[in-house]
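Box S1 | Example of a co-folding query
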Amino acid sequence: MVEDIELLKEEIKERLSEKRFLHSLAVMNMCEKLAKKYNCDVKRAKLVGLVHDMAKEMTDEEMLEYAKKNNIVITETERNIPQILHGKIASNLAKKKYDFDDEMCDAIKYHTTGKENMTLMQKVLFVADKIDETRKYEGVEELRKLAFENLDEAIIKNIDETLKINIDKEKVILEESIKTRNYLLINK
Ligand SMILES: [Fe+2]
Ligand SMILES: [Fe+2]
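Box S1 (continued) | Returned holo structure for fe (ii) ion
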């Protein structure tokens, strides 16, 4: 596992635009805060925050190629919108390059949509990614506050808002998001 987080920061910086690198650092910081609040392992939560978007600036072709070469199973939706694959690919890279454990890799893999029955680390990363300090969208302050009161409610709220936006913009809705939301509502 990674011993020197500063070295890892340099590697992530090389892969990303400045804007996305700053987002990654801010997600790392937010993971630290949420991990402390909810008693999640702080060091590992920071690492997943730093690395979660490391594949996001690959081109569609590079993503599909990477998935093929590394036997990553892809859905029909992912084939059509390869950007969705960035979590799966980052998870695979984190395992291979940095020897992240399974819990960390799973958090990275599902950071965009969440999944049913998420672990605490998955929830921490999911929420940190949506409320990091570089985020400026309407309602973010409210969501930030909610995140420190009830992590599950923050996830539901974020998915609700995202669904509304995607409907208004006629964008694809990922079924994993629906499953995440239903699971949390049913198991409240
Ligand atoms: Fe992402
Ligand atoms: Fe992100």
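Residues 18-38 form the longest helix (21 residues). The pocket of fe (ii) ion (ligand 2) is lined by residues 23, 27, 52-53, 129 (CB under 6 Å).
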